[in-house]
Amino acid sequence: MQRRILFLAGAAVGYVLGARDGRGRYEQIKSQADSLWNDPRVQEKVNQAGQTVKDRAPEVQAKVADAASHASDAAKAKVAGATSQATGAAKAKLSRDKSDDNLIGQEPGSNYTPAETKFNSAG
Question: Can you list the alpha helix ranges (DSSP code H) found in 19-118?
């Protein structure tokens, strides 16, 4: 029903904007729309719809809050998992580096031979 009303409203607006009849046709359509809106049957349906929204608002609010809570928990778990994984990888790398005791160029398979460098700070 709501889609039909929206469609008819859109069609009316399109017709008014595209009509070449000018102001007279606009006034005629406006008058018909006003009489339709002020029809007691239409107003009764509008009031029923408003009451339905008011009655269901707490239920919808609870469902939205529940969905938001689940989404928040899932995001926190994902971040915690990624953080834990990154921390574990960093700790493993540090433990390998500490136990390695090799200097740059002294890794297995390296052809680099470090040269001694002397710094003269007396200028």
Answer: 23-37, 40-100
